[in-house]
Amino acid sequence: MSEDPDTVITPPRGPFGTQPAREAVYGVLVCGSLLATGTRGAYSVGRVALGILGTVVVYWLGHVYVDVISSRAADREVRLMPTVRHAAVLNVPLLQAPLIPLAVLLATRLLGAGPQAAVWAGLLATVAIVVTWGLIIGAGSRRRRALSAAIATALGIAMILLKAALH
Predict the structure, then answer these.
(1) What is the pLDDT of residues 105-129, one digit of tens each?
(2) Mean pLDDT throughout 26-32?
(3) At 20, is the secondary structure helix, strand, or coil?
(4) CA-based Rg of the chain, rounded to a whole angstrom?
(5) Would you say 18 and 116 are in contact if contact means Cβ atoms under 8 Å apart?
(6) Which of 44, 125, 147, 152 is least crowded, fewest Cβ atoms below 10 Å from its Cβ?
(7) Secondary-structure percent of the chain, ordered helix, strand, coil, rounded to 5
(8) pTM score of the predicted model
């Protein structure tokens, strides 16, 4: 049974318009997870931010690599460099999305908050973004939007509980 093309839901575009929203959401989740788990003991907020940026870059490179090898596995005639450029651009939202929580992290610290408070502010910004995207991106009926928002909220709560449990 084939679906009517008019009823197929296409993935929404990301907040930066370059890739389906999944890459942006993934980037924010990576950032939030690192804020939740990567701040044990003594640390500086700058070091936390650099660690997150470095990790997100590695994830981005991994996504680019997977996209390239998947394309090449499907079609050996695919040209390498255009495929690399295309994959790099498509995955840019993974790099961009964590910038908002990182800005909150750094701004909170610059405004005089301690490192732990700044990390919590960055984490709460991450949760707010994830929940907002869950509401916005949830396609279809109210029920689907509610389910999407509930899942996003559960992910946010999981990050908060993880942070609270580890620290």
Answers:
(1) 999 999 999 999 999 999 999 999 9
(2) 90
(3) strand
(4) 18
(5) no
(6) 44
(7) 75, 0, 25
(8) 0.78
Residue listed under structure tokens 């924010």: 28
Question: In the structure encoding, which two tokens stand for residue 21, read together?
Answer: 């929203």
DSSP letter, residue 53: H
The length of the chain is 167
Report yes or no: 123 and 160 within 8 Å, Cβ to Cβ.
yes
Tokens of 130: 């994830």
Residue 40 pairs in a beta bridge with none
Q: What are phi and psi of 38, to 5 degrees?
A: -95, 20
Phi/psi of residue 114, nearest 5 degrees:
-70, 170
Distance CA 135, CA 137 (A): 6
Helix (H, G, I), strand (E, B) or coil at 6: coil
Alpha carbon distances (Å) from 11 to 19, 43, 58, 83, 139: 9, 39, 25, 21, 9
